[in-house]
Amino acid sequence: MTRGRKPKPTNLKVISGTNRADRRNDSEPRVTIAMPSPPPHLGKDALEEWERVCVEMYGAGILSILDRGGLAAYCQAYGRWVQAEQALSRMADKDPTNFGLMIKTQSGNAIQNPLVGSANKAMADMVRYAAEFGMTPSARSRITAIGVSDEQDPFAKFDRKTS
Q1: Most CB contacts within 10 A, which of 81, 119, 147, 160?
Q2: In whole angstroms, how far apart are CA 93 and each of 97, 98, 123?
Q3: Beta partners for 110?
Q4: 10 Å Cβ neighbour count for 81?
Q5: Where are the domains positioned within the chain?
Q6: pTM for the full model?
């Protein structure tokens, strides 16, 4: 397992002006900007999120076919978070005292509703995946992207072998 900051892709180093020969991966693979198809196992809420974010990410020029798995994981976490929050909301309507956040065990003890833990876990997963794709404000502040053009590779004009 590597330590420290995640490496910045070369194309982003070129755009931001921090491209240095001693810190560059000249063998870094290049990917084509493309819109992947959603996996069939995504639920309704996850699929709606897939369709929403794919359009935005593709328009920003940061989506490729290789992103399908990571994006599916983000969307699935989003879908689970929505479902858990909706279930909590239904429970809150019936429980004006604890709003569904606490439940009683068979022995009469009050404990946190397991749905709260499920919602929190799905939300944490969703935010972690979102950061990988630059979908959080702090993640966006660290990247610079260009829109999709008609050319195959918008970074082809930059020769990675020169500094």
Answers
A1: 81
A2: 10, 10, 22
A3: 104
A4: 23
A5: 34-140
A6: 0.71
